[in-house]
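Late entry, written up from scratch paper. The run itself happened at the end of the previous shift, but nothing got recorded in the book at the time, so transcribing now.
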Amino acid sequence: MPPPPPPLPAAFKSAITTYLLGGWDLAICADLMLQGVLFAQIAHYTALYDTDVLVLRVFVAVLLIITTLKTAQGLTILWTLNVQHFTDVNAALSLFSTSWIICIDLALSGVIAFYVQLFFCARLWWISNNLYIVAVIVTLFIFALIAVCIFTFVGNSRNVTWLIIHLGTVFAGDVLLCGSTIYALLYHSRHVSAQTAGILSSLTKLTFQSAAPAVVCALITLVSMVAWDRIRPNGYLLLALIANHVLPKLYAISAMWTLNSRRNIRRAHSIGPRSSLPMGERQPSHNFELSSLRASSNQLDSIETEMQSTTPLPVDDSGFSKSAPRSG
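Output as recorded:
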């Protein structure tokens, strides 16, 4: 039986307890708080969008499952570190290389981020219909997922380099995705009527507001991961742990924010009369959820005319009928 590891120096033990173990505690608490926000958002979605298209309801259901599993994992880690090994710092440190539930943490975060990023890539495709830019962004996100899986699962590859590659690629993809979406919305707003331009303006603002927290958090995670001392834990490690745990939940909240904002945008830019509906009757859902913006100005005007006689406003980002023809 191998001898027990030597006791840690007092100064190093204090740094480990404060910045590493304390960082995990704060990160998991932040995760729990954001999961509560996400539960409220999903409850709001379920109450107001129960007639949504199937693909969106399945997306929300899977998002609920994987984010809840991430929170359950955090609670398990919190119990293990603070109850089972409350006074044994050496045993707590050994868990980071021996406990599978801790070792898969980064990979699970990467899967959640990738899942939401694919949702926003699909949204960008329906808005811009630009296959090339969407393919580039999806490739970046796939590479980021591969990098974090290599860091987590492949032999002796558990070094910070792969993690930094993952975080840098995620940040680059997020910036490109957000910028491309805003550009597509601004471009199409110049080729439509004033009312539809107002819708696109609201969607541009929503895109920036919902994406900004995740992009900023990804940047903080990348910078702090590069800056922290590899020899002795410091404040950058604590910041990296918190930001890395918060990031996947910010992605999920961003997606739900986007979905739940459709009703407010519809009300703010109503098209056509609404008073003819009987009291309490719900406005029928329309196939505007995943529609293309790539149409000529004449096509868009004809779509708006049809909208005035069918539904007050498209209920998703693009704002146009899925059946509208796309220009070449």
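The CA atoms of residues 161 and 218 lie 16 Å apart.
(Scratch paper discarded after transcription.)
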